[in-house]
Amino acid sequence: KQEVTQIPAALSVPEGENLVLNCSFTDSAIYNLQWFRQDPGKGLTSLLLIQSSQREQTSGRLNASLDKSSGRSTLYIAASQPGDSATYLCAGTTSGTYKYIFGTGTRLKVLA
Amino acid sequence: DTEVTQTPKHLVMGMTNKKSLKCEQHMGHRAMYWYKQKAKKPPELMFVYSYEKLSINESVPSRFSPECPNSSLLNLHLHALQPEDSALYLCASSQEDRANVLTFGAGSRLTVL
């Protein structure tokens, strides 16, 4: 059974810091991988999608990479801002299915 | 229209009630999903519909009954729920059944008394 672990579980940093969030899958045969953010009590907003043929995606201050050999993904946030405070979730599929399995999440707080 | 709309936003029901959650999207997406999320936990997949047919049921109890009347609508019918079913229910859609970008609604917060 696929299990997804995110490290750290919680993070509190001053504004302006560069951050690295980690995501690790027990089954490294990841097909698609998405990173989401979730504000308290709200739905999920998709940040980046790394499809099966890709290894990396960038959007603004965000960069996500996927190492398929180890089943690990990293989300890099540059120059963090208080508006980045949220829970960040990674989710992946295997073997081209539509069954996204979510990670345990990282709760981020960026202090002004 | 790039949204997934869920109604109601909040629902309180007793254990003997019958109620429904609704989800609508007009992006032409052909896969639609129901997820359940408990507090401080990740979302857990319940059901997936692909081209209006149920393709995944994650061994969800029969007191939850999904329905996809057409390609834009997804319902979750609720009957004889338990207090432990209280959670945020999230609907999502994607362009094809190969799980491209998932677009989520804001969720329906369910409380079972």
In summary, what is this structure?
Chain A is mainly beta. Chain A is 0% helix and 58% strand.
Question: What distinguishing features does this structure have?
Answer:
heterodimer, A: 112 residues, mainly beta, B: 113 residues, seven-stranded mixed β-sheet, four-stranded antiparallel β-sheet
Provide an overview of this structure.
By secondary structure, chain A is mainly β. Chain A has no helices and eleven strands. Chain A is globular, with a radius of gyration of 13 Å. Chain A starts with a strand and ends with a strand. The model of chain A has no long low-confidence stretch (mean pLDDT 92). By secondary structure, chain B is mostly beta strands. Chain B has strands at 4-7, 10-13, 18-25, 31-37, 44-50, 53-57, 64-70, 73-79, 87-94, 103-104, 108-112. In chain B, the strands form two sheets. In chain B, strands 2, 4, 5, 6, 9, 10 and 11 form a seven-stranded mixed β-sheet that branches. A four-stranded antiparallel β-sheet of chain B has the order 1-3-8-7, with no helix packed on it. At the A-B interface, strand 4, strand 5, strand 9 and strand 10 of A face strand 5, strand 9 and strand 10 of B.
Distance between the termini of chain B: 36 Å
Q: Compute the average pLDDT of chain B.
A: 92
Largest sheet of chain A, in brief, is: 6 strands, mixed
Helix/strand-derived class of chain A? mainly beta
Unreliable stretches of chain B: none
Count of distinct strands of chain B: 11
Largest sheet of chain B: 7 strands, mixed
Largest interface: which pair?
A: A-B, 26 and 29 residues
Rg of chain B, nearest Å: 13 Å
Give average pLDDT of chain A, whole number.
92
